[in-house]
Amino acid sequence: MKITNDIIESHGLKLEEYSKIKLLLSREPNFLELGIFSAMWNEHCSYKSSKVHLKKLPIKNKNVIQGPGENAGVIDIGDDDAIVFKIESHNHPSFIEPYQGAATGVGGILRDVFTMGARPIALLNSIHFGDPKNKKTKNLLNGVVSGIGGYGNCIGIPTVAGETKFNSTYNENILVNAMAVGLANKKKIFYSKAKGINKPVVYVGSKTGRDGIHGASMASAEFDENTEEKKPTVQVGDPFTEKLLMEACLELMKKDSIISIQDMGAAGLTSSSVEMAHKGNLGIELDLDKVPCREENMSPYEMMLSESQERMLIILEDGKENEAKKIFNKWDLDFVVIGKTTDTKNLSLKYKNKTVATIPIEALSSKAPLYDRKWTKKKLDKKKINLKDLKKIKFDDAFFKIISSPNHSNKKWVTEQFDQMVMGDTIERSGTNAAVVKIHGKEKAIAVTVDSSANYCKSHPLSGGKQIVCESWRNLVAVGAKPIAITNCLNFGNPENPEIMGQFAENILGIKEACEFLDYPVVSGNVSFYNGTNKNNIFPTPVIGGVGLIQNINRIQNHRFKKIDSQIILIGKTFGHLNQSVFINELYNLYDGMPPEVNLLNEKNNGDIILKLINAGNIRSVHDVSAGGIILALAEMSLSSNIGIKINKPKKLYNLFNYFFGEDQSRYLIEVDKNNYPKIEKILKDNNIYFDNIGVTQEEYFELDKVLKINVKELYELNNRWYNNFNGLNS
Amino acid sequence: MKFAVIITLKKDVLDPQGKVIEQTLQSMGVNSLKNLRQGKYIELELNETDEKKAHNSIEDMCKKLLVNLIIEEYKIKKI
Amino acid sequence: MKFAVIITLKKDVLDPQGKVIEQTLQSMGVNSLKNLRQGKYIELELNETDEKKAHNSIEDMCKKLLVNLIIEEYKIKKI
Amino acid sequence: MNSSVIVFPGSNCDRDVATALTKLQFKNKMVWHKDNVLPKSDLIVIPGGFSYGDYLRSGAIAAKSNILKEVVKAANSGCLVLGICNGFQILIETGLLQGALLRNKNLKFISKDVHLKIINNNNNFCKKYKKNNIINLNIAHNEGNYFTKKDHLKELEDKDLIAFKYCNKDGLVNESTNPNGSISNIAGILNNKKNILGMMPHPERMVDNLISNSDGVELFTSILN
Ligand SMILES: Nc1ncnc2c1ncn2[C@@H]1O[C@H](COP(=O)(O)OP(=O)(O)O)[C@@H](O)[C@H]1O
Ligand SMILES: [Mg+2]
Question: Using a CB-CB distance cutoff of 8 angstroms, which residues of chain D are in contact with residue C62?
Answer without folding.
Answer: none
